[in-house]
Amino acid sequence: MNEFVSWDPTQCGSDRILLPRNKFWVPDIVINEFMDENTAPEIPYVHIYCNGLVWDSLPAKVVSSCNLDIYTFPFDIQNCTFTFSSYTHNGDELKLSLMKSVQYMTEMSKNVMTTMGEWELLNITSNMYDENEFNNALIFHIRLRRRANMYVVNLLIPSIFLITIDLFSFLLPPQSVDRSSFKMTLILGYTVFLLIMNDLLPTTGHAVPLLNVFFSLCLALMVASLLETILITNLLCGSVKVSPVPHWIQVLVLQILGFLVFLPRKAKHSDMEQNVAVIKLDAVEGPPQEKGPVVENRVVQELRSLATDVQALHLQVEQQRLDGSQSSEDWIQVGLIIDRLLFGIYILFISVSCITITIVWHNSYSQ
């Protein structure tokens, strides 16, 4: 209000006129969060009303600083602040107040925001800062919500697809399929995917977004899956050359863990043992001897002795083969049980991680 510029609208014929701004006093209201020069077009005039009201329509394009909390990115809600104050006038010289309610300003702002950008305006609140007569400021709090559709389509869904493929790769038979090459290809593809989509992730040194933790978790699970595949392949392919399964592994893995993962221990080869027993019996008893006084040639006796030695050697080789075959089958069974166990742990770990991250995102996004 400027009491020096009032007039009678009846005599003058108008209740409002436009005059140059530099001819009148206007307060030096600034936004404290300004980070760049105001590039909005300059308005050289002000509206003067007959009662002395000076209406100054001064547009401003504000590039401001805002403390972002990106822990729940891309389902994050940010609170930004605009502080209007004067640098030259104290609180007893200049009083700032709202001309319209914040509810009206919020609805008007939502109506004029025609852009379909990354952010969505939730609400605007304000409060007066009038600590003493020397400080007077009008503070606006603006709540913005990020539109997460682009990040879900470009980041989350491809990552979930890749981790799902890695999960179902456990169903490939490790005996006949090179599962490790398949998993290495998945890890390489996932790494390239993260490098390509790195520009979409926020860069800050104060907090690590939960989405980055999710990506690191997926990559760690893929690497752990590859290491497990290498272990299982080593057990299946090198089981013939290793020593028999120790007793504590038989009890812990073949009996206890095999029961938990529904892979009971296979039965031994009873038929083979029976054949070996028959061979052993024949080797001990020898060929049937004819009764009565029979004069045997010395050559025939040597041949029979040689046949007995050959049967003994055959018995020994057959027994070693049977023991090696049983040891190999035990190691193969150990590998299958460990593979089934890690598959279950993999599913449990992914489920718990996804549920936890989803709950955190939901609680943050619904505030």
What does this entry look like structurally?
The protein has 367 residues and is of the alpha+beta class. It has 3 domains: 1-65, no CATH class; 67-147, Acetylcholine Binding Protein, Chain: A, CATH 2.70.170; 151-286 and 306-365. 49% of the residues lie in helices and 14% in strands. The strands form 2 sheets. Strands 2-5-7-6 form a 4-stranded antiparallel sheet, with helices on one face. A 3-stranded antiparallel sheet has the order 1-3-4, with no helix packed on it. Strand 3 (45-49) and strand 4 form a beta hairpin. The protein is rod-shaped, with a radius of gyration of 42 Å.
Task: Give keywords.
4-stranded antiparallel beta sheet, 3 domains, 14% strand, 367 residues
DSSP helical segment count: 8
Range of strand content: 5-15%
Element-by-element helix/strand order: HEEEEEHEEHHHHHH
- Largest β sheet strand count, sense and barrel closure: 4 strands, antiparallel
What are the segments in which pLDDT stays under 50 over at least 5 consecutive residues?
Answer: 269-288, 290-295
Strand order of the largest sheet: 2-5-7-6
- Which structural class fits the helix and strand makeup? alpha+beta
Rg, rounded, reads 42 Å
Structure summary, number of beta strands: 7
Helical proportion? Answer: 40-55%
| Global geometry | rod-shaped
Please, how many domains?
3
N-to-C CA distance: 42 Å
Tell me briefly what this model is.
This protein is an alpha+beta fold and 367 residues long.
Break the fold down into its secondary structure elements and pairings:
Blueprint: H1 9-12, E1 16-20, E2 29-31, E3 45-49, E4 54-55, E5 77-86, H2 102-112, E6 119-132, E7 135-146, H3 149-168, H4 179-196, H5 210-237, H6 247-260, H7 270-285, H8 298-365
Antiparallel strand pairs: 1-3, 2-5, 3-4, 5-7, 6-7
Helix pairs in contact: 3-4, 3-5, 4-5, 5-8, 6-8, 7-8
